[in-house]
């Protein structure tokens, strides 16, 4: 039997799933979930936005031009992960803040748990934001085999500090249940790979350009 892969990417919450026991005719799955994207933030509604990779995906898929969504992160995630309107799980009231003793109620099975029932193994990268007041609410206890990312909201891309929308600020960047140590580095790029952008003086910009260009080149990235 072949090994299947399901990748769910929530920008600010991302999930990667990879089945190990599934039948060979089951598909690999990639789900991308984007926070706070407006109607005009995609090229197919606004030609001023350049996104060639997503346009390629859209051209081979289906573009939904009529839809409803929720205005904040937790309700949107709860609806997607459970397939129910948020008011049916009690997650309709804004978002889970740092000190809120809440999340998606444990009696509900989430998407990764359902995927595992049909042979997928599941992995998440990015923002969880569906409860973290107890171990039972955390992603690795709600169906994900692994999680690399953040539990809360409003986390800075560089310092990994939250608290933008919550009075209790703190460092939020985890590898499963362990905290990822802080680093003064930006992106771990071998020096020889930066030569193409040597004319760019700013280190972070040079490294970012390399990563941005190479994201679609899985063969080169696998060598890093």
Describe the structure.
- It is a single chain.
- By secondary structure, the protein is an alpha/beta fold.
- It has 2 domains: 6-184, Alkaline Phosphatase, subunit A (3-Layer(aba) Sandwich), CATH 3.40.720; 185-224, no CATH class.
- The chain has helices spanning 52-59, 73-82, 111-117, 203-214, 218-221; strands at 6-11, 15-17, 29-34, 122-127, 146-150, 174-175, 178-179.
- Strands 1, 2, 3, 4, 5, 6 and 7 form a 7-stranded mixed beta sheet that branches.
- Strand 6 (174-175) and strand 7 form a beta hairpin.
- It starts with 5 loop residues before the first strand and ends with a helix.
- Mean pLDDT is 78; it is low at 1-9, 11-17 and 218-224.
CATH class wording of the largest domain: Alpha Beta
DSSP summary: helix tally: 5
Q: State the order of secondary-structure elements, H for helix, E for strand.
A: EEEHHHEEEEHH
Can you tell me the CATH superfamily of the largest domain?
A: Alkaline Phosphatase, subunit A
Q: Per the principal axes of the C-alpha atoms, what is the gross shape?
A: globular
Annotated CATH topology of the largest domain: Alkaline Phosphatase, subunit A
User: Which architecture name of the largest domain does CATH use?
Assistant: 3-Layer(aba) Sandwich
The major beta sheet can be summarized as: 7 strands, mixed
β content, as a range? 5-15%
């Amino acid at each position: 039997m072949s090994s299947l892969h399901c990748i769910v990417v929530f920008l600010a919450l991302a999930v990667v799933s990879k089945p190990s026991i599934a039948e060979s005719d089951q598909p690999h799955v990639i789900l991308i979930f984007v926070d706070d994207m407006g109607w005009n933030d995609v090229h197919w509604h606004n030609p001023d936005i350049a996104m060639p990779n997503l346009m390629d995906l859209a051209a081979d898929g289906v573009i939904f031009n009529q839809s409803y969504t929720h205005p904040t992160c937790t309700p949107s995630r709860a609806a997607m992960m459970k397939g129910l309107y948020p008011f049916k799980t009690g997650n309709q009231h804004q978002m889970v803040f740092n000190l809120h003793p809440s999340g998606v109620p444990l009696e509900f099975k989430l998407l990764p748990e359902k995927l595992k029932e049909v042979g997928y193994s599941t992995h998440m990268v990015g923002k969880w934001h569906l409860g973290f007041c107890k171990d039972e609410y955390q992603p690795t206890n709600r169906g994900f085999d692994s999680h690399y990312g953040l539990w809360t909201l409003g986390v800075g891309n560089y310092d990994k500090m939250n608290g933008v929308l919550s009075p209790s600020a703190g460092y939020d960047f985890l590898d499963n249940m362990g905290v990822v140590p802080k680093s003064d580095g930006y992106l771990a790029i071998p020096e020889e790979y930066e030569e193409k952008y040597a004319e760019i003086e700013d280190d972070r910009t040079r490294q970012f350009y390399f990563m941005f260009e190479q994201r679609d080149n899985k063969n080169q990235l696998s060598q890093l």
